[in-house]
Amino acid sequence: MxxxxxxxxxxxxxxxxxxxxxxxxxxxxxSAAVVLAEGFVGVTLEPQDELVEPCVAFSQQCFPLAVxxxxxxxxQLAAAAWGALAPWLPELQAGFAFHAGCHDYPGSxxxxxxxQRLADALLRHSGALKAAMAPSHAxxxxxxxxxxxxxxxxxxxxxxVDQRHHLRxxxxxxxMGLAPVNADPHAPSRAHLKLREAMxxxxxxxxxSDSVVDLGASPGGWSFDALKAGATVFAIDxxxxxxxxxxxxxxxxxxxDAFVWEPKRPVDWMVCDVIAFPQRTLPLLRTWLRNGWxxxxxxxxxxxxxxxxxxxxxxxxxxxxxxxxxxxxxxxANKNEVTAMGTARLSxxx
Length: 350
Description:
VC0802-like, Rossmann fold, 25% strand, alpha/beta, four-stranded antiparallel sheet, 28% helix, 2 domains, seven-stranded mixed sheet, 11 helices
């Protein structure tokens, strides 16, 4: 592995490798990207691209300073992985988080059970180092990742602690970038899973004292979670929400157009899962951030086929200007869409 062109690997949804490569050409324009295996794209990172804080929506997880190791058996693969970690041992002895995963789906060439056997074998090699393991979601320690890409081939990656902040938009605190969420059977739809995933990435949830605006709220999946947390919700839509939500005393339903409605005062949250394409959604989000109407936002950016994917670059530029911090990613519950989330600048002014 070269010190000037380290290998960085991004995991996509299986089948979306070419979509991810097209996005990476925008994010890392000086670096070459190739498909390494199903669901894994490698980037030979040039120095100028290392300096850029990456935000890659169609990547589930990023594996910085990645090394590919091989072994015919689990024990051989674990020994090879341990050898790849050897240069990092002094830094890891002070504490580290550990992730092990794969693309696990029916018919996949690798499954999570084999990953767990590899992880157990690798940790047996570590001896006393195992005692230094921090919680897997810790972000203030180095992150060790092992991803099984084929039955006899694995990626080994270490994200040093001084890189965790720089890479926070692409290195998720969850194995393979998959936030652990469960559907509520009482919700009006499964759309609330997108909001729950976003909150895990944001590291915050609704509070009883919060005011929440839900633009395009019907049938009420996102309002459902906010009301369940005790927040006050302003639901804006032409159609009413589910009957029980409409009867909630903390719901303020406004029949109207989510794209023209304006709050009388700033709110804590603006959430939006309205069915519209980027040419309408992005100006809407820009208006809310520019005017300081919300502190935190979660917005679905929906696409019509793949023709709208270049709009992601427009979204990134807009959020770099108007948001204090942000993330754009295709969460598990997204279909042909991504979720933009983050916090507004305290004083935008333009």
